[in-house]
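dumping these here so i dont lose them again. two proteins, back to back, each one seq then C-alpha cells. dont judge the mess
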Amino acid sequence: MRRFTRDHLTAVLMLLPSLIFLAIFVYGFIGQTVYFSLTDWGRDPAQALAVRPERAFVGFDNYVRLFTGLLESRFRQDLVNLVFFTVFFIGGSLGLGLALAMLLDRGVAGEAFFRTVFLYPFALSFVVTGTVWRWMLQPQGGVNLLPTYLGLPPGEFEWITSRQQVWRFDWNLVPSITALLVAAVLLAIGWRAWRDLRRGRAVSFLTVGIALGAWALAGGPGVELLPFPERHGFNLALIGIVVAAVWQMSGYTMALYLASLRGIPEELREAARVDGASGFQVYRHVVFPLLGPITLSAMIILGHISLKIFDLVWSMAGPDLATTSVPALLMYIRAFRANQFADGAAIAVVLLLIVATVIVPYLWTSLRGEVRR
C-alpha cells in the first residue's frame, strides 16, 4: 500500500483551488443550467426578470416541446442546419488542408511564404472572418462581380440571403435515420474489430448493427414526432457560411497534416516504391493510413468548433435570418431577447449532449491508450 507522503499533500493543495473553481464555475453552472431547463422559467413574463422568480418543475416538457412542438420548427431546422454545416465544414477543411499539405510536402519554392499565407486566416477571429466574407458575398457585389472583369454578366447567386432548400426530408423520419446512423457506426466498429482479428467482439457489433439497420429499414421505431409532415433540408444560404469557415480553418488542418507528413520516415516511401508502388499507391497504402490518428484528432477539434458555431453566423448573417440560423443563435434569442430562460437552457443542454457524443468517446479512447502504454 502506497504511503501518503508530503509530496502528495503538496500536490493536492496545489490542485485544490483549480478543482474548486472548476467544480463551481463549470460543473456547478452546468448542473444549474440542466435544472433550469426542467422548469418553466420565462413562460410568465412577469416572473422572468423578477428578483425571486417562481419556477415550477415541469420535467422534460421543454425538451419534448422542442422536438415535437408545433411552434418549434425553427429549432428543428436549426439542428438540420447544424448537421449540414458540420459535415461540409469538416469535409472541406480536411480535404483542402490535406491538399495544401501534400503540395507543400513536395518542397516547393517559397514554402515558408505559402505556409504562412495559408495559416494566416487561422489567426483571425470568426468575427473578422465573418465581416470580410459578408462584404464579399453581397448579392449585388463581391464575388458576384468577378465575371464582369472578363466581360461576362455578373453572378446572380444569393449566397447568405438565399431561401432555397435541397435534400429535404420529413422530420418524422429522424428516429429511423438516427437508428441507421447508429447501425453504420456499429458496423464500422465491427468491421475494424474483424480486421484486427478480434472475432468475438466483431461478431457482436456486426450482429447488432445488421439487426438495427434491418429494423430501421423495415419501418424503424414507427414513432410519429409530429401529426403532420414537416419538411427540412439544406439551406443554400449556408454555402457562404461554410466557405468562410473552411477558408479560416483549412490552414490549421494543413499545418497538422504537414507536420504528420514530415514525420513519416522516407524509408517507408522508398520501400513501397522499390516494391513497385506508384505515387498514388504510396499515398493510399503508406501515407494515408499513417495520417489516420491526426485526421481523427482534426475531426474532433473541427467538430467541436462547428457544433458550437455562433460568432461567424452572427457576423455574416445576423441572428434573425432563419435560413442560416443554428441552435446557438436560437439559444441566445430565447434566453437574452425573449427572456425564456428555460427554453434557452434546454437548447444549451441539447448542444452540450451533442458535443459530448463527439468528445467523450474520443477522450475515453485516448485515455485508455495512455493507460495501456
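---- next one ----
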Amino acid sequence: MTGTRPRNALDALADVLDRDLAAVDAALAADYPGDPGGRQPVHTVYVPADRFGEDTVAQWGVAAAAALARHGDRLVAEVDGLTPDILDRVRAKLDREPIEDLRLDFEDGYGTRADADEDAAAVGAARALAASVAAGTAPPFTGIRFKSLEVATRRRGLRTLDLVVGTLADAGGLPPGFVVTLPKVSAVEQVATMVRVAEALEDAHGLGAGAVRFEIQVETPQAVLGADGTALVARMVHAAGGRCTGLHYGTYDYSASLGIAAEQQSMDHPAADHAKAVMQVAVAGTGVRLSDGSTNVLPVGDADAVLAAWRLHARLVRRSLERGFHQGWDLHPAQLPTRYAAVYSFFRHAFPGAAARLRAYRERSSSGFLDEPATAVAMAGFLLRGLDCGALDAAEVVDVSGADRVALAVLARRTR
C-alpha cells in the first residue's frame, strides 16, 4: 500500500512495549490528567461564619471602593505598573464582582463557641449563602472551612459540615463552585478519611456522586515532610480520589510550627518558599490548583498606615504571581483594591508581549523567541487567566493574539 513501510524489529518491540507499559500509561493518565479547565479565582476571602449575611459581598465591595476613594490617588505610585486606566478597571471590578471566592470560616476565624451557637451559625450562614445564590449576588466560587479532622475538633467539625451541606441541599443543592476547605492536614489518612466523609454527605443529603469537593490546607510541617522523609503532600493529592481541587498554603500556622517569630512570619519567608515549592511540584500535571496564603497586615488606620499595608500587600501578590501562584487569601475589604491592582497590573504589563509571541507561534512567524509547545500552553493559559479576572478584554486578546477563548482553551490544553 502506498505510504506504508515494511514492519521491522522496532515495530515489533513497540508492540511489546505497548503491552508492558500499559499499566504505567494508565496510571500516568489517571494521576496526571492536566489542567482541569475552567476559571480559577484570584483570591479566597475568609469571613467568620457568624458575620456572613446575604449582603456581605456587597458590603465588602462598598467598603473596598470607599477605601480606594479615600487613598486611591496615592495608590498609583505604590503598585508596580499601576496606571490610572488600570485603576479604572479596579473600580469597575469592585462594583461588578468584588469577591471571586468566599469561604465561610468555622475554624480559626470563628474560634471555639458553644455547640448551640455554632449549630445556629452553620444553619444561618448556609441559609444566607443559599439566598445570595438565588438572588444572583453570590460570588462565582463559595465554600466553608470547617474545623479539622484532628481528634480535638473532629466531631464538632463534622457536625458543622453536615449542617451546612444539609441546609444547602434542602435549599436546592450545593452552589456551583462550592468547595470545602480541610485545614491542618498532617497525615495522608486524614485526606482519605475526607473522601469517606464526602461520600457519606452525598448519600445523606441526596447529592450526586462527586458533588462534595475539597481543598487541602497545607499549614503543618508534617504535610510537607513526613516521618519517612517523603513529601506527604504529594501523596495527599492522590489520596483524594479526584475530589481535591486545590492546595492552600497556611502562612501563620506553618510559620509558627517552625518556631519563626511573629514579626518574621510572612508569605515571602524562606521557609514559606520551601513549602510552596514542594506544593508546586506535588500538583504539577494533576489538575489541582495552588493558592498562596495571606498577609495579616491590614490596611487600616491613617493614610500612611493604609498605604504601607497596601504597598506590602501589592508586592506580595505580585511576587506570588511571578512564582506561579495565581490565587491567595484576602482577610479585609480594604485588601481588595490592592489585590486587583496588583493582579491587573501583572496581566496588563505582560499582555502585549505574551499575545504577540503566541500569534507568532501559531502563525510560525518570527517573534525573537524560539518558543516551544510548552511555552505556548503557558502563554495561552496566561491570556485565559487575564480574561477570567477582567484584566483583559476579549476583543483586544483576539486582536493581538489572533485567538479567541475557544482557540486559547485548546492551546492551553483545557479540554476537559
